[in-house]
Specification:
Radius of gyration: 12 Å
Largest sheet: 5 strands, antiparallel
Strand order of the largest sheet: 3-4-5-6-7
Shape: globular
Number of strands: 7
Strand content: 25-35%
Number of helices: 3
Helix content: 10-25%
Length: 103
């Protein structure tokens, strides 16, 4: 799937070329869309953040930042702080479930 025009400013090609864009990733244990399908994406224009997922706590979002490579967490409750998570969404998923990545 190609990156839609409105989100081409975000380095999110890895998401759109993955199965996550079509089907997302439902975390059965946490009962949350860890990675959202494309029809559920949210852009936070002021923060220049494209949210493609969430851990389900503390208003944290997972996604992409304009002009910054990699996959990030956006901590809204902590003065809108960003945390680098992984180079790609696929590496994030692998690290998250291996317990190597936390927020």
């Amino acid at each position: 799937m190609d990156v839609p025009e409105q989100w081409r400013g975000y380095p999110c090609e890895d998401y759109f070329s993955s199965p996550f864009a079509a089907g997302g990733y439902w975390d059965e244990l946490a009962e949350v869309w860890l990675i959202e399908p494309v029809d559920r994406l949210e852009e936070e224009a002021e923060a220049e953040f494209l949210q493609v997922g969430r851990p389900g706590v503390d208003s944290i979002g997972f996604g992409y930042r304009k002009r910054h490579s990699g996959f990030w967490a956006f901590h809204r409750m902590v003065e809108e702080e960003f945390q680098y998570l992984a180079p790609t969404v696929n590496e994030f998923i692998a690290g998250w479930y291996a317990g190597e990545i936390t927020v």
